[in-house]
């Protein structure tokens, strides 16, 4: 205020504006402004000298001239609608000035138009300096202050992260509680935000947290693979904010500050026992926030979103994104790979035996890749130590083994002879598990090609008489030609009489 007094004093003493500007280190426009306001006020120098600093501020800094000037009133009333139009792709400040000047021929020129718009924009929202296009970017971040829930059984207080997403053009905001900032929770929150907005933006702008960016860089940051998969699923892209460049994400940081006042205050004295209860309360307060009129504007975030931005978002895919996990494994000799997380085995084509492959799996599907080519896909099994096999993947010999079953061996044996079928049934029944008997059954039935059908039938008949049911019994009968003995011959016939036979008296 002392400089204002000196400007007026020098002016009344006949000093030039240039002298006053250089002597007091003020711009010539500022000097001209103070002198003009002094002349308009009609006050004398001694009256100004008696005024306090607060009274001088009301006269010279209180923007009274702008409020009185009808030309500036028209100009500033044009800016809210102009700001909305600038969010459309292709809209420029020059085009808006031409529209303004066509309706107000006595209005300000292009250069002054830009200066006044910049001043108005800074006063209405001093943080936002970037002109955001509708449907272009969605900014995401976590709030510094955490919320909490209480375990109903133990009474333990668990901290909860607060996730915030905001659309650049309309400032339409989404928030939710999340148990952590790990990539699974982060990706799920980003997807929930897009589902809340009902569309996909052209780009997602996260901070440089590890769940989003593995390695930061000014020119080409390395995006977390899971977040990149999400972007591919929703046909969008990831544009991480630059490190130590807070203006890149100033919009979402400003939203976080506002939500501290409009959400945290109402939740801090309430108790929630699970994440669902907390989020329901957050979304109720969030709806009030989005429907509240913006500062200095006759519309709310929600109205701006519906009118200007909703139709610019891309349609959502029908299916939600499923997080993909990956691991590496070597194909075993039996043509299967191990998913180490579930301890399950999945088949691949036999040509890839002993090859190193990559497994990509979601909650429902397991995919196997070799050198970027998918070679197998299976439904994911939740049971440990289970083999999931596609018969087409197996070699011909393996396919034969894969088709082994008790029914198949019994039908095969009955096609030779009913007694062979009966013997095979006995082998299977005398094992704890049918599969234990399959090799024995196979060995018995292959004797048909080695010794012929008749000999195998006779061997099975004799083995049934012995009541010994295994492969070894049939093998011994055939090797010792016991199958060829005539069963009708009397094995108990009397021995012939001759001198070498001792009588019963010999043993008395």
TrEMBL record:
Query: Which molecular-function annotation in GO is an example for this chain?
Result: nucleic acid binding
> Which GO biological process categories is it annotated with?
DNA integration
Which stretches make up the Integrase catalytic domain?
Answer: 122-325
Read off the InterPro entries from this record. Answer: Integrase_cat-core, IstA-like_C, RNaseH-like_sf, RNaseH_sf
Taken from the record, one Pfam family name reads Mu-transpos_C_2
Domain of life of the organism in this record? Bacteria
SUPFAM superfamilies from the xrefs? Ribonuclease H-like (SSF53098)
Q: Family per UniProt?
A: Belongs to the transposase IS21/IS408/IS1162 family.
> Would you tell me the protein name for this molecule?
IS21 family transposase
Q: What is the lineage of its organism?
A: Bacteria, Pseudomonadati, Bacteroidota, Flavobacteriia, Flavobacteriales
């Amino acid at each position: 205020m002392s400089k204002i007094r000196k400007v007026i004093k020098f002016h009344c003493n006949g000093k030039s504006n240039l002298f006053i500007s250089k002597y007091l280190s003020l711009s010539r426009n500022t000097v001209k402004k103070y002198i003009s306001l002094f002349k308009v006020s009609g006050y004398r120098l001694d009256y100004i000298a008696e005024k306090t600093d607060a009274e001088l501020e009301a006269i010279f800094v209180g923007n009274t001239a702008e409020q009185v000037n009808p030309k500036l009133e028209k100009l500033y009333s044009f800016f809210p609608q102009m700001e909305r139009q600038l969010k459309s792709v292709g809209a420029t400040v020059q085009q808006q000035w031409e529209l303004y000047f066509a309706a107000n021929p006595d209005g300000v020129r292009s250069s002054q138009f830009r200066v006044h718009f910049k001043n108005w924009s800074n006063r209405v929202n001093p943080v936002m300096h970037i002109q955001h296009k509708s449907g272009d970017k969605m900014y995401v971040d976590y709030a510094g202050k955490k919320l909490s829930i209480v375990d109903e059984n133990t009474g333990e207080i668990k901290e909860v992260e607060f996730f915030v997403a905001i659309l650049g053009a309309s400032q339409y905001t989404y928030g939710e509680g999340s148990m952590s900032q790990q990539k699974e929770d982060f990706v799920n929150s980003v997807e929930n935000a897009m589902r809340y907005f009902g569309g996909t933006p052209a780009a997602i702008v996260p901070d440089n947290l590890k769940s989003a960016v593995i390695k930061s860089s000014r020119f080409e940051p390395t995006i977390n693979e899971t977040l990149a998969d999400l972007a591919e699923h929703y046909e969008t892209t990831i544009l991480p904010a630059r490190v130590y460049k807070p203006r890149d994400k100033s919009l979402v940081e400003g939203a976080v500050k506002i939500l501290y006042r409009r959400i945290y205050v109402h939740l801090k004295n309430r108790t929630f026992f699970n994440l669902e209860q907390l989020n329901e309360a957050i979304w109720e307060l969030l709806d009030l926030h989005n429907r509240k009129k913006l500062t200095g504007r006759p519309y709310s975030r929600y109205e701006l979103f519906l009118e200007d931005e909703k139709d610019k978002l891309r349609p959502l895919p029908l299916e939600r994104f499923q997080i993909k996990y990956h691991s590496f494994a070597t194909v075993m000799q039996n043509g299967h790979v191990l998913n180490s997380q579930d301890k399950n085995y999945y088949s691949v084509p036999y040509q890839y035996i002993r090859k190193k492959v990559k497994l990509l799996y979601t909650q429902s599907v397991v995919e196997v890749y070799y050198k970027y080519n998918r070679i197998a896909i299976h439904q994911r099994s939740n049971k440990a130590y289970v083999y999931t096999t596609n018969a087409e993947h197996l070699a011909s010999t393996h396919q034969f083994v894969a088709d082994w079953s008790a029914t198949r061996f019994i039908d095969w044996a009955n096609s030779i002879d009913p007694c062979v079928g009966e013997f095979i049934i006995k082998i299977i029944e005398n094992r704890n598990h049918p599969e234990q008997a399959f090799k024995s059954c196979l060995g018995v039935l292959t004797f048909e090609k080695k010794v012929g059908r008749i000999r195998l039938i006779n061997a099975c008949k004799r083995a049934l008489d012995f009541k010994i049911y295994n492969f070894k019994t049939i093998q011994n009968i055939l090797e010792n030609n016991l199958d060829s003995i005539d069963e009708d011959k009397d094995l108990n016939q009397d021995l012939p009489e001759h001198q070498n036979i001792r009588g019963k008296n010999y043993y008395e």
